[in-house]
Amino acid sequence: MYRYDEYDQTIVDERVKQFRDQVRRRLAGELKEEEFLPLRLQNGLYMQIHGYMLRIAVPYGLISSPQMRMFAHIARKYDRGYGHFTTRQNIQFNWLKLEETPDILADLASVQMHGIQTSGNCIRNITSDEFAGVAQDEVVDPRPYAEIMRQWSTFHPEFAYLPRKFKIAISGATDDRAAIYAHDIGLSAIKNAQGETGFKVLVGGGLGRTPIIGSVICEFLPWQHLLTYIESIMRVYNQYGRRDNKYKARIKILVKDLGIDEFRRQVEADWADLENGPGTLTSEEVDRVTSFFIDPPYEALSDYNAKLNEFQADNRPFSHWMAKNVKPHRIPGYAIVVLSLKKPGEAPGDATAEQMDFIADLADRYSFGELRITHKQNLVLADVRQQDLISLWQEAGEQGLTTPNIGMLTDIISCPGAEFCTLANARSIPLAKLIAERFENLDYQYDIGEITLNISGCVNACGQHHIGNIGITGVEKKDHDEWYQVSIGGAEGNDSSLSKIIGPSFTFFQVPEVIERLIHIYLRERIEAERFIDTVRRIGHAPFKEHVYANDFVAQEEHNNGCGVMSAQYDVPYYSPRF
Amino acid sequence: MIIKNNTIVTDDWSVLRLSEQETAETVAVPAGKIIVPLKVWQAQRGNLQRCEAIGVWLGTDERAEDLKGDIEKFSVIAVHFPKFSDGRGFSIAYNLRARLGYRGELRAIGDVLRDQLFYLRRVGFDAFAPRPDRNIEDVLKGLADFSEVYQHSIDQKLPLFRRTQRKGNPATDTA
Ligand code: SF4
Questions:
Q1: A94: CB partners within 8 A, 6+ apart
Q2: Which of A143, A531, B14, B128 has CA atoms 20 to 30 A from the CA of A300?
C-alpha cells in the first residue's frame, strides 16, 4: 500500500499543528463556534450528542495493521473502547473531548493517518472497491488513481469551500463495488480497444433527500487528464452550484437544472484551457504511485481443495462461511476473506479495541499486514492463503468475526442514528439489532439468499437506504416518536436503481414484521433462483405493498411489556446541538 | 492596515459600497484612490477610466469574465467575501489570474480571516484586508500554515509531482 514520503508527512504534520492552534484559539474564545465549525469539520470533527465525534480518513478503505492498532489505541485512550466503521470506508469515534483531539490527530499522523476532509463542504475522502487489486474481474487497479486523487484533493485551495460536500468514488472492475453511480463523481477505470487506460466519468449521482443516479459526462477520458478534467468539473460546480439552499446545493441539482449536455459544455469550455497543461498526469507519477501497489510476495500455490473440501463436508458452519464470506482471488491458492462486523446482537460496523488489535494480528499473520474496510461496514483480509482458511476461521470465530452472513439479510448497513447523530429522526442501530435477531436463523437467511437492507436515521441517507433492496429511513413526525419509512427496489453496482417507498410509515417494533411480510411475498412469488431484487423488478411494488398493509400489526405492547419505545442505550442529553 | 506581499502595510484605498438608496448610475464616486463595485464601474466607466487610479471589486455572484478587456485599467481588483465560507471568490481569483491574465494587486475584502488566508494566497490573492475586528498580526500567521502543497494553482504553477523527484516504493526498482 501507499507509504508517505517526506512531503506527505510534512503536510499531515503541519495540519496537526494548524489544528492544535485552531483548537487553542477556540478554547480561548478567539474563534467563534461558527468560525471554528468549518475548520473542525475539515478535520472530521463533528459535535454530536455525546460530545465530539471524529471521523478518520481511511483512503479508499485500505489500512495496515499498525494503523488498525492505532485505532485500538484511540478507542482505549480517548474513547470508550470501541469505534464504528462507516459506509464511507472510514472509522468514527463518538465520545471524544475537544481538548484531546489535537493529540489524537498527532497520534494518527505518526502512522500516516489523519481526519482531513472527512467532513465539511469540500472534496471528501475518496472511496473505492474493497477488493481492488485482488478481484478476479478487475480491469484496472483503481488504487494508484485513488491515491493520486487523494493527494490532489488534499487542501486544494480553490475547492475547500464548495457549496456542499463532494464525494468521489472509483472502481476498476467489471462489477461495480464502489457505488460509483451514487456519487458526485463516479469513475470507472477501463481500457479502450487499443488497451489504453482511461475513465468513464459519471457526475451528479447522490443519495440524500434527492436521490439521483449519476449521468455520463465523458465516455472515455484518457488517464493523463484525470485531474484536470475533475478540476474543471469542480470549478463549474464551485461557481454555479446553489448556495442559497443547503438541500439544493449538491452538484446533482446543478447537473439536473442545467441538463447533462449543458453541464458538459461548461466543463469542457473550462477544460479547454487546462488540457495538456501542467496538471496533466505524467507516466512517471503514475508509475511512482503504482509502485506502492505491486503484488505482495505471493507464493506459487495451486488452488487448495482437497483438505478444505473435506473439512467443509464435516463442518457446516465452516462451509457456510466459505460460501458467504470467502471470495475468489485472482492468484491461485489465495482467497479474499470478509470478516463480518454484523454479528446479530452487535451494532453493525462496530469493533472493540480488543477486536481491532486481534484483527491487526490476523492481518499480520495471514494477509501481508493489510486490511480493507468495506462500504458495507465489514473488514477484509484480501490475501489469505487457502491453506490457512481453516485456522483463520477458527481464530476469527473466537472473536465473533465469522458470522457467515455476507450479502445476506443480517448483513445490514446502518448509519449511527439517533443515539449518536443530532440530525436523526430515529434510532438506526437498535433497529438493525432487532431485525438481525429476528432473522438470525441461518437456514432461513440462506433460503432468502442475496439481499441488501440499509437503514438511515434520517433523509441524509448515510445508511444509503435508497440503494438497498430494502431501505429503511427514520422520518419526522409531529409526535416526536420514532417512525420509519420502508422502501424497496434499490440496488447498487452495475444495475443501480433507487428504491421506492411502499406506503405509510411504521413504528420501531413494526419494522421487523414488515420485512417478514416483504420476504413472504418474495418467497411466494420468486421464480427459481431469482434474487429479491429481481422479483421486485419483475412483479413491481403492488403485491408487496398489498401484503404488508393487508393485516394489522400485533400491538407493539405485546412485544414490549407496554413500555412504548425501548429507551436509548445511552443517556441522551436533552440538549442536542445541531450543526 | 492590510496584508500585502506577506507583510502588514498601511493602505490608502477606500472601498465604495452602495447603500440601499444609491444606484450604480447615480452614485457620486469620491475623488482619490477608490475601489468601486463592478456595477458602478460598468455604469460610469466613461468618467472612471479618466481617474488616475481606480480599483474595482467583485461580489461572489459576479464573475471574472465581467472584467474581460478591462483589467489593464485597474490598479487594484478586489473580491468581496460576504461570508468566509463562500468559496466562489476562490474561483473568481483563479479565473482573473489564469484566464484573464491579471497581474496587478488582487485583494480579498469582506469576511477575510486567518484560516482562509493560505488558500486565498494560493489562488492568486496578494493583498488581504482582514475583518476589522481581527488582530491583523494574528491573521498574517495564516499564510505560514503549510510549507508544501500537492497541486498547482496560481502561486505554484506546477504540481508537486512535476516539481520534485518523489521516491517510489523502495521495494521496487521503478523509483
Ligand atoms: S442518515 Fe441521518 S441519522 Fe443517520 S448518520 Fe446520517 S445524518 Fe445522522
A1: A48, A50, A51, A53, A79, A80, A84, A416, A420
A2: A143
